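Practice problem: LisH and RanBPM domains containing protein
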Amino acid sequence: MATKKVITKEDWEKRLNDVKIRKEDMNRLVMNFLVTEGYVEAAERFRLESGTEPDIDLATITDRMAVKKAVQSGHVEDAIDKVNDLNPEILDTNPQLFFHLQQQRLIELIRNGKVDEALEFAQEELAPRGEENQSFLEELERTVALLAFEDVTRCPVGELLDVSQRMKTASEVNAAILTSQSHEKDPKLPSILKMLIWAQNLLDEKAAYPRISNLSTAALEDPAV
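Answer key — structure tokens:
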């Protein structure tokens, strides 16, 4: 078995210092993260402090976050209205997103114990879409199954009532709005961190070096020899 090459922390830091990254590029990464994740106040402060201009109007972030918050709070009808105010084509051209929003409306009716209203809504609004799309029909059947259990904790699809389901739908809407604004739906910074982990895993096979295990501190560890 070949012996791994050992790279000291001193040598590793020297190599890192030789890599030149422009501050402007780092600032753009930070701004991209703030804009994509919807931190409008932080983005505005960062714009003033760093001189980095966002690639979209910061006012649109407030509108996008209002939509996201409405879904997370279970006010799906309000969210749909807000999306249509922003850009009616978002839902017109994305039947899967519109179905998931309508599905979330059904979930909220079930959550609030409005059984009759939920059944009527499922039959009139969701069933016709299920007839056109098999995956929609399967999701509708899973959702309606919630009505068969008085104790939803015993329901095999009870996770639909979890807050995580709202978050999932809200993230889907957020991504669709960003796409409609010709903006990446995911921030670049987390992708770069994933690439760092991937690169380290490859390098682990060939060398012992000062790797980064704690991404929050980015501290270099002594090479494992």
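Discussion: The radius of gyration is 24 Å. Students who identified this feature from the tokens alone can consider the problem solved.
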